[in-house]
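Thread amino acids onto this structure.
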């Protein structure tokens, strides 16, 4: 029996490319990425999923921003329908929805291809590059075409807060800090959005976290559940099997044979994954300290995934580890957006 509990839900990342480059992105997506999954690869992956799944909950198609390659997205939806694969939703940041005509046409084509549900992102992080007006247009049109019950707005409570700043133009994150102060904005971001401190979040937004913990606080916090038992994973355009939301960490390349990959997987073949499964990021930090001179940040970390990403970023600079891929993830841990200014606050 496989050590890797077979997944029952997954996300397909058609690309890491995204016009937003949000500061909270756990996959460090953004405009600097160029490549997309090719059609043949996507078809093979979907076939592999259909052969691996026993009791599927569903998959989601995403990017980066999947609508930036709409023909590929449409192709993926059609293939899922032909293979009988349940799509939970297609995820979008709605930045492409510049007017009603464009939005209605794209949603209509997706519905005709077999899609029944979409997830539209809305948050202070997305609003930094996307005018709220576009998000609201996309929500309205998606509800018209798929029905309100089939449109997930993640997270709708931010609509009103963003609207207080501006509806027509993007709202830089620094305006939230000016308005609410670093502590108030930090609470809104970290607790209000329930940020996962992996990927870019800890690095870009860690200074605003309501609490930071020393590396020792994560001693004993292993990642067996997240890596081996969660039953949720992501597949990226480079054939990486990414456990749960662990951006930049690969359990290996599926090499167009997903059923075989799941059956053959052994964590002991991957030294860094093996440490994370047994000891979590504290153990990985110890390994990095003993072998390469890693020194934990005396200011602490916003969460265990923040520590993990910082240790992995350090190790990635020291050598080649097959699990630390794609390497461009580590080069994109800083957003292309300007550094955040701290200071403030009078609420809008
Ligand atoms: S979180 Fe932001 S940068 Fe990441 S994929 Fe979504 S919209 Fe793009
Ligand atoms: S600490 Fe690392 S391996 Fe563990 S869940 Fe977070 S990102 Fe994944």
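Threaded sequence (348 positions):
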């Amino acid at each position: 029996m496989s050590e890797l509990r077979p997944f029952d839900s997954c996300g397909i990342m058609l690309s890491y490319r995204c016009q937003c480059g949000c500061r909270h992105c756990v996959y460090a997506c953004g405009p600097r990425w160029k490549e997309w999954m090719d059609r043949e690869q996507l078809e093979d992956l979907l076939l592999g999923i259909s052969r691996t799944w026993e009791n599927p909950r569903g998959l989601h198609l995403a990017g980066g921003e999947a609508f930036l390659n709409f023909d590929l997205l449409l192709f993926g939806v059609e293939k899922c329908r032909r293979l009988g694969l349940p799509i939970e939703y297609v995820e979008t940041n709605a930045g492409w929805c510049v007017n009603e005509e464009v939005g209605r046409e794209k949603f209509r084509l997706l519905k005709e291809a077999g899609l029944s549900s979409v997830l539209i992102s809305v948050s202070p992080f997305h609003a930094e590059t996307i005018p709220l007006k576009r998000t609201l247009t996309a929500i309205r049109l998606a509800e018209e075409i798929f029905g309100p019950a089939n449109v997930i707005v993640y997270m709708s409570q931010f609509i009103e807060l963003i609207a207080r700043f501006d509806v027509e133009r993007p709202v830089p994150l620094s305006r939230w800090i000016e308005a609410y102060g670093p502590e108030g904005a930090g609470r809104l971001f970290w607790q209000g959005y329930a940020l996962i401190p992996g990927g870019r979040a800890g690095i870009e937004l860690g200074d605003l976290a309501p609490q930071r913990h020393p590396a020792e606080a994560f001693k004993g916090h292993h990642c067996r559940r997240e890596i081996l038992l969660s039953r949720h994973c992501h597949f990226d355009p480079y054939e990486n099997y990414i456990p749960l939301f662990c951006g930049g960490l690969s359990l290996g390349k599926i090499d167009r044979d997903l059923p075989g990959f799941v059956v053959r997987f052994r964590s002991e073949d991957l030294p860094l994954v093996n440490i994370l499964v047994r000891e979590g990021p504290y153990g990985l930090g110890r390994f990095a300290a003993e072998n390469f001179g890693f020194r934990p940040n005396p200011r602490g970390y916003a969460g265990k995934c923040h520590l993990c990403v910082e240790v992995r970023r350090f190790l990635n600079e020291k050598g080649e580890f097959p699990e630390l891929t794609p390497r461009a993830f580590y080069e994109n841990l800083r957003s292309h957006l300007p550094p955040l200014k701290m200071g403030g606050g009078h609420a809008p």
